[in-house]
Amino acid sequence: GESVGLHLPTLSVQEGDNSIINCAYSNSASDYFIWYKQESGKGPQFIIDIRSNMDKRQGQRVTVLLNKTVKHLSLQIAATQPGDSAVYFCAEMGGSYIPTFGRGTSLIVHP
Amino acid sequence: DVKVTQSSRYLVKRTGEKVFLECVQDMDHENMFWYRQDPGLGLRLIYFSYDVKMKEKGDIPEGYSVSREKKERFSLILESASTNQTSMYLCASSPSKAVEQYFGPGTRLTVT
Fold this sequence. Notes:
The complex is a heterodimer. Chain A is mostly beta strands. In chain A, strands 2, 4, 5, 9, 10 and 11 form a six-stranded mixed beta sheet that branches. Chain A has one domain (about 5-110): Immunoglobulin-like. Chain A starts with a strand and ends with a strand. Chain A is built from no helices and eleven strands. Chain B has strands spanning about 5, 10-15, 20-25, 30-40, 40-50, 55, 65-70, 75-80, 85-95, 100-105, 105-110. Chains A and B meet through strand 4 and strand 5 of A and strand 5, strand 9 and strand 10 of B.
């Protein structure tokens, strides 16, 4: 099947810096993309999503960028805080019930 | 807020035991899912259900079964637990197709 991958398994940043987490996807039919955050000992939590008719979407301190030409998705976190330390997953969907998840990137924020 | 609850946070069972993992959601969602999460392998779909009494196999259904007798409850059953089923099990729900899923806190199952 199609795969969703992440470029870096671990990202370390200083508190206050901006963080960028990347994700490559391979299914050109995917039209919906989601970022999840999973803190230690908890289930994944929805952060932000984007549909393929958009290339950018902003939330509170987070921005998702979608480049369909190169099948790339990124999550930008502004002014990263220690509470942002977690594993971040991207997921893609092609109009079905079932997302395909990436393996996750661990974000470590140093105070 | 959507709430997805799972019956146990931690569970220890012996090889060969029958194991029930329960999941309940309180937002009248149509769809429910069971995943297992293992280091280096990410989230893998075991079974899902898009309606009461309906079930569909995911990517790794072997050794598992499910039950959805009521809309809010989706149970995962390990008929005869084996050590390779030691894992974190995550339940999720969603209101429709192509929307985000809401996850429960997970059950860490250890089979000895």
